[in-house]
Amino acid sequence: MKLFTLLSFFGLFALSACSNPFAPDTQTPSVIEPPEPPAPPATTPEQLMDNLDRAMSTRDKDLYESLLDKDFLFTEPDCLGEIVYVNNLEEELQMMGGSRDGSQLGVFETFRDFDFDFELTRRSQELGSEHPESFPGDPDGHPDEDWEVFYGRVQMLMLDENGNGFRVDQFMTYKLRLDPEDGLWKIIRWENDALAGPCGGAGKRLTNSLSWAALKQQVAPSE
User: What's the pLDDT tens digit per position in 161-174?
Assistant: First the structure.
């Protein structure tokens, strides 16, 4: 009987030791997600558009810069068809990624969340044989190159750390060229349709919605 009592005592003592609240934590550590692999090179027009989606959605200004051609040009007309917004490569990079000296924030740095969705409506080719240079240095002339053209609806939602932000819903055209220097596709033209809506005599769009160009100018105006 005493032997049984002693065994029971030591059994309880061992059980108590195993459940020592001061013992080191033996829980399995949380799994750390591996870093996302870099975007694949834009060796096809389709891959370029996938990389654009990723660059915008992750606010990756380095990836975004790698997708733009050295002769990149952005344009957007008003509702009367007059081009009112134009910016080149350096202005685009400043508005999206901020100034190179860090004195001005860009769109990617202003917002915490950035949703980007492109829904393809039409794909075509802009043949070089149909676009000769109208004058020396014509930016729209490319007689020796065929450009790939993607046209569709773009929806964006941008929110800052307080949950405030902007929404864009607009039809846009992306014209892509194959860069002979590195064999990668680049965006050489980003052309937006004007937002739908009636126009006043001065060409002002009567709507509360901001176009993509107007939003860029408001958040991070170029110098």
Answer: 988 889 999 999 99
Asked whether the beta carbons of 191 and 173 are under 8 A apart, the reply is yes
Order of strands, edge to edge, in the sheet holding 147-159? 83-88, 68-77, 184-192, 165-179, 147-159, 113-126
Q: Which DSSP symbol is given to 98? A: -
Give the Cα separation of 114 and 39 in Å (integer).
18
Q: At which residue do the structure tokens 């043949």 appear?
A: 127
Integer-rounded Cα radius of gyration of the chain: 28
State the helix-helix crossing angle for 212-219 and 89-97, rounded to 10 degrees: 70
Residue in the block written with tokens 């080191």? 24
Instruction: Tell me which of 141 and 148 has the higher pLDDT.
Output: 148
Token code pair at residue 2: 């005493």
| pLDDT tier, 221 (very low <50, low <70, confident <90, very high otherwise) | confident
Q: What does pTM read for this prediction? A: 0.80
Residue 157 phi/psi, 5° resolution? -135, 120
Q: Look-up: residue for tokens 């002693």?
A: 6
